[in-house]
Request: fold
Amino acid sequence: MKLCQAIEQGIAIKLERDSIITGYAAGIGIFSLVVAKSNEDLKLLISNASSIQGPGFLHLPETMN
Reply:
């Protein structure tokens, strides 16, 4: 799901720390997009989701430098 679609559907989630966006999600589920600065931010996004779409989700950690 694209972020703009998630915003329109009211399922987009944004995480801020000290007025800095550290993560966002276009829903939580197998076909959704989740981006987080740290694993702790990822955990917060998942735990604050109102629902998980589809059969679950797949966590693929990736470090970008």
Notes: The chain is about 25% helix and 25% strand. The longest strand covers residues 20-26. Residues 3-47 form one domain.
